[in-house]
Amino acid sequence: MVKILPHIQNLTPYKPGKSSDPSDFIRYKAILSSNENNYGPSPLAMEAIRKNLSSINLYPDPLGESLVTELAKMHHRNEEEIILSNGLDGLLYSMFKAFTLAGDHVVTNDNSFVAFNKFSLMNDLALEIVSNIDYAFDLEQVVASVKENTKMVYLCNPNNPTGMAIGAKELKRTISRISSNVLVIIDEAYFAYAQAIDADFPDSSLLNLPNVLTLRTFSKLYGLAGVRIGYAIGSSHVINVLKKVKLVFNPNLLAQVAATAALGDEEHVAKTLTNNTKWIHILQDQFAQKNIRTLPSYANFICAIFSDATAASKFFEFMDSKDILLRKLDGFGMPEGVRVSIGNDEEMKYFSETLQQF
Fold first, then answer.
1. pLDDT in tens, 189-234
2. Which key words tag this protein in UniProt (predicted)?
């Protein structure tokens, strides 16, 4: 039998927020489990894909220079300070490969994006998970957890699955107290939603600090989760190191042209953000009327907190019986929580009506 490394032996495969069974897409009236953009991809992105289908026999630009140029303009950064990848998973893979060795120490928070935890364990690192205070990050403890052999600190802002956020002053103060030898990763997958809800939401890429790496994605706002494309913004030194370990020829050709087109679709972006903010407020009010606690959300989902795991399961199963698929949060260490993604208007109206029946 092929020998498996000890630190890999006990890992479990990632469990997605929805079934892989195609029949489920027919059964459910509302799939609100994976924080996707249920208004669909940008029409301009779809057109770009159609126009480039005959070119998929060709390798893509390994650095995606056309898209990087547009992103550099949007973020007012140099092109050397941006790198593309096949989703944030690809970026995490490169970061762990470039900046850590087995036994190194890394820090994250409880009840946060589990991919960072999984990559830490895959690479045989000493993963420290800082407990939260009523679901909010304990940033004082995050700073206190940094050691001499700490290589990375990961902060998801807004956080998935809670939707809660770190304010501008808190974020800047926290980063300033972490050694410049430590790579501070700020995962801003939901940044655009947050800024639409709160115009003062902090953009970590504007800090322009040598040890801060900002992660963004096209999976959420731009509706391109299926083609896998994301990017990082950081110092030219860090970005150059990531390029050395980046898997060649990703993102794929269709992902690159779709993302470039999606950036220019202002109508699609505006519609998505406007409707998301509207439904966040509506659902927060409706859950409150039902005496169900929801956490403050700066993302495209609501995190509902129940008295215990049994109550959360009862809510989840009720919605499932009404053909609404949500996300139970056991895998995030929150068995008392259920996450509700914001879908399109038709889905949200149905969910809203069903919530009144619970």
1. 999 999 999 999 999 999 999 999 999 999 999 999 999 999 999 9
2. Aminotransferase, Pyridoxal phosphate, Transferase
Q: Is 28 helix (H, G, I), strand (E, B) or coil?
A: coil
pLDDT, tens digit (0-9, with 9 covering 90-100), for 234-290: 999 999 999 999 999 999 999 999 999 999 999 999 999 999 999 999 999 999 999
**How far, CA to CA in Å, does 37 sit from each of 190, 194, 205?**
11, 15, 24
Q: E-strand spans in 110-241?
A: 126-130, 150-156, 183-187, 212-217, 230-233
The number of CA neighbours under 13 Å toward the Cβ of 320 is: 14
> In degrees to the nearest 10, what's the CA dihedral of 99, 102, 103, 107?
40
Taking each helix axis from N to C end, the angle separating 87-99 and 236-245, rounded to the nearest 10 degrees, works out to: 100
Q: Tell me what percent of the residues of the chain surpass a pLDDT of 90.
A: 92
**Angle separating helix axes 114-122 and 87-99, nearest 10 degrees:** 40
Reading the block at residue 115, the tokens are 């991919």
Cα separation of 28 and 56, whole Å?
Answer: 33
Cβ-based neighbours of 313, under 8 Å, separated by 6 or more: 328
Q: Could you give the CA distance from residue 85 to residue 230 in angstroms, rounded to a whole number?
A: 5
What is the C-alpha separation between 185 and 92, in angstroms, rounded?
10
Rounded CA-CA distance 333/336 in Å is 9
**263-268 long-range contacts, CB within 8 A, separation 24+:** 263/67, 263/70, 263/71, 263/74, 263/222, 264/44, 265/42, 265/43, 265/44, 265/45, 268/39, 268/42, 268/43, 268/44, 268/222, 268/223
Q: What Å distances lie between residue 279 and 20, 302, 348, CA to CA?
A: 27, 10, 7
How many whole angstroms separate alpha carbon 34 and alpha carbon 53? 27
356, two tokens: 């009144």
Q: Comparing 20-34, 43-57, 195-209, 261-275, which segment has the lowest mean pLDDT?
A: 20-34
Mean pLDDT of 164-172: 98
Amino acid type, 136:
A
